[in-house]
Give the backbone structure.
Amino acid sequence: MTDAHVASAVSGLRGLGRAGHRLLAVGPSSTAGGLWSRYAADDAVVPSAVEEPAAFAAAVSRLSLERGSPIVYPGGEAALTALTDAAVELPRRPRLPYPVDLQGALSKIRDKRMLPKLAGTAGFRTPTTLLEGRPGDILAAEVPVPCVVKPAMPGRELGSARVIESQFAFRALLGGLESDAPLLVQERVTGPLVVLAVVVGRDGGPVARFQQRVHRTWPADAGTSTLAVSVPPDDELVEQATSMLVAAGYWGLAQLDFVLSDTEPVLIDVNPRFYTSLPLALASGVNLPAAWHAVAVGRPSSQPHAYRTGVTYRWLEGDLTAAVRGNPGVLRRRSPRPRAGAMWASDDPVASTMLALGAVGVRLRRRIPRGGR
């Protein structure tokens, strides 16, 4: 498991560990939370996938070879990109939990420019793209506002989607980017946010599925879930999502984000990796990491099973950030029990503490001016 300093990767590690699998956790420093997890049978420090992608890929490849080529689960977008980048020279490609044609299958669902065509195969609508290009090419354009700006490929400088409310904010955002990575400017679709996670078997059927309704995000209009609740799966939505992934030649875990507009669900994103609110699925009784691993190693497909609904998830760090940025009311709104958090797990307290300390450290470093002044 790579990116052991990231909460979503540690959630994946915990799910696999609870299913009895032995894991090697790797991270960019010895303080990475996953390296302290009770579910890490071994650990190692490797270069950062963000800062040194080629060195990261080489180190992970070497560790994989030394341990008999186990399956390597990328814990973040940068790690996934580094490990699948054909331009990175490696003695041997690590064994990843994806189809053999991973470049083709992954690019179809990771590249936002290709998503509308793929979504159309399953009858999904996606947000209308208003502009596409590099920041310098679209900087001077007049765009309808509000709109959404997002990276065409994940793991780039912009990170996640941003809601833009004015022409001034549009120019300020694009003018402040250092990277020349392509961007998409899309219509803003409003409505409740629904997250669907599905594990597709090699035979094309759903092996596991889980659905949650999102009540709050940070950033408020286009961010990560800070408050969500498990809900019964929409069988039609699961069937459509599965058929879309199969059309891409994909099997394994995928997390899909939908906005429920007035007339239909609008697909806004697909992520083929462990995701931030994964602890909610685990707390509700759906071990998505274990189901993904069973598919990856070629075990016979199983059938999805029922899970607990009404379980809540809260990302406290996101709510704290929202409070500091002018919305202190979110801290007074308590989520009902039973609930799950992004970092804390009662059966893995040391890793939980290290993750929390790491999050505090990141925020403190952001507040310290460069050069220590």
The chain has twelve helices and 13 strands. The chain has three domains: 7-107, 128-187, 193-334. The chain has a mean pLDDT of 88. The first helix runs from residue 7 to 18.
